[in-house]
Design goal:
The protein is of the alpha+beta class and about 200 residues long. It has helices at about 5-10, 45-60, 70-75, 130-145, 160-170, and strands at about 40, 80-85, 95-105, 115-120, 150-155, 175-185, 190-195. Pfam families: Acetyltransf_7.
């Protein structure tokens, strides 16, 4: 999962709201295959379903680290470029990813504008089927078609291990680790691993 940046998450509470648990329309999990999935543009009507998935992800993985006051707004910040969902043949949304406009690097104003991979998450019941990999690949193709370099940040924590493995296996390069300008739900500092991906990766 991708980290939650301070401008979107620091003001939220630390836990997801109570409510019905997500029931995925997957049937038996071992019946789900890569061929059952399609990646499509996210629509406004998808947002409540995305929030339901995100609630389960937060309960299991503490992502986002700080639960936002308005999850739908958190999924649709003003700097959003595009967003996609992964959907099963039965119409269940089981994953989400977005690209956000982050402009040029702060330490190099002359650098090429970049897009940040963000809000990447996969429903707990749909893991192990390369849903995250398909979402990342789709976002990467979209960015490559527009000659946009990609960047991302992820919380430097053991829980991030599977996601870090996915990124590094698919060509992402770890550039540095730094302390976030925002804090965790307990006020503790948060360390972020930062990655880049160029078209020739």
């Amino acid at each position: 999962m991708i980290c939650d940046r301070s401008r979107s998450s620091a003001g939220g509470s630390s836990t997801a709201p109570a409510g019905d648990r997500l029931t995925l329309a997957l049937g038996r999990s071992d019946n789900l295959t890569v061929n059952d999935l399609r990646i499509r543009d996210r629509t406004a009507a998808d947002l409540p379903h995305c929030v339901a998935v995100l609630t389960e992800v937060h309960r299991l993985d503490r992502y986002p680290l700080n639960w936002p006051d308005d999850p739908e707004l958190w999924l649709s910040p003003t700097n959003a470029l595009h967003a996609w969902v992964a959907e099963t043949a039965q119409g269940a949304i089981v994953g989400h990813v977005a690209l956000h406009d982050v402009g040029s690097a702060a330490d190099d104003p002359a650098s090429m504008p970049a897009a940040e991979v963000s809000r990447l998450f996969v429903a707990p019941g749909a893991r192990g089927y390369n849903v995250g990999g398909q979402l990342l690949a789709h976002a990467r193709r979209w960015a490559a078609g527009r000659r946009l370099p990609l960047v991302l940040e992820i919380v430097d924590h053991p829980r991030s291990g599977p996601a870090i493995t996915l990124y590094e296996r698919t060509g992402w390069r770890h550039t540095h680790t730094a302390t976030a300008t925002w804090t965790g739900p307990d006020g503790d500092p948060v360390r972020l691993r930062r990655y880049t991906l160029t078209e020739d990766a």
